[in-house]
Amino acid sequence: MSGQIDISIDPHVEDQDVNSVDQQTILDRLVVFISSMTGWLFPVLMIGITTQVVMRKLGHNQAWLDDAQWWIYGFAMTVGFSYAITTQSHVRVDILHQSFSAPKKAKIEVFGLGWLLMPFLIIMADVLFHYGWASWTAGEGSSSANGLHRLYILKLSLPALFVLAILASMSMLYRHLRVFSAGRLWAFLIGMFPAAWFLAERASFYGLWWAIRATNSETEARDISDAPIFEHTILYGLIIVLIAIIVSFGMSRRALKG
Measured between alpha carbons, how far is 119 from 55 in angstroms, rounded to an integer? Predict the structure, then answer.
């Protein structure tokens, strides 16, 4: 093992366009496929809006149609966020960026994705999971009697869609990283250091939580996170990431010498 991330991509990416089809990874194709399928929801949304306007004018307002419009719009737009990351079709002001060299552009993109965007996406996925789970346990429905109930279906889809955006960001981070580095795991972890740290912290937290839950059935679930051991999960996450970086770097150096 060399500590290199195993994603099929041309090793000479620095001489090519990072946005070309040849540089797309499996994650890129997955995001584009899901986005293409989700895109068909927009004609459905337009039909729903038109139908509701006509029925409202005729005095037959349908609350479930209002709910359906918000459901479709929220789901489709969140998927569209992942698509914009993968295709870099988001709105951006790059007056200075467009004149930079390819390696400099790639370094800016790595910083923006790994140090700014991904931590936000991971936090949102974590928060929205609890948000959706609370909706599920409460059996949340529409505020209207004839609206769309089972609102928890939409809310539980939100963390999954943010995970899709995280995967899209990781793929783009890797593609940009390959412009100025060999794409080793240690470089990838440094490129997304804040995000990797938070992921490791969350993994530590949930791992400890479930371990205590499984071994102490008498402890109330809501009291588990109050245990003193959870005060140091941030440190645990940092240690995990640093160990992964050091081990990967050592394996890479050994592979080069071999």
Answer: 44
Contact between residue 125 and residue 162 where contact means Cβ atoms under 8 Å apart: yes
Rounded to two decimals, the pTM is: 0.85
Contact predicate 64/142, CB 8 Å? yes
- CB neighbourhood size of 57 (10 A): 9
Q: pLDDT tens, 45-97?
A: 999 999 989 988 888 888 888 889 989 999 998 999 999 999 888 777 678 77
Residue 249, CB half-sphere, CA atoms under 13 Å: how many? 10
Question: Which 3 state secondary structure label does DSSP give 184?
Answer: strand
DSSP secondary structure code for residue 88 in this structure: T
- Which pLDDT tens digit goes with each residue over 139-153? 888 877 788 888 899
CB 190 within 8 A of CB 106: no
Sort 120 into a burial class: Cβ within 10 Å, 0-12 / 13-18 / 19+.
middle
Q: How many residues are present in the chain?
A: 258
Q: Is 158 exposed, middle or buried (0-12, 13-18, 19+ CB in 10 A)?
A: buried
Domain ranges of the chain: 184-258
148-207 confidence digits (pLDDT tens)? 888 899 999 999 999 999 999 999 999 999 888 877 899 999 999 999 999 999 999 999
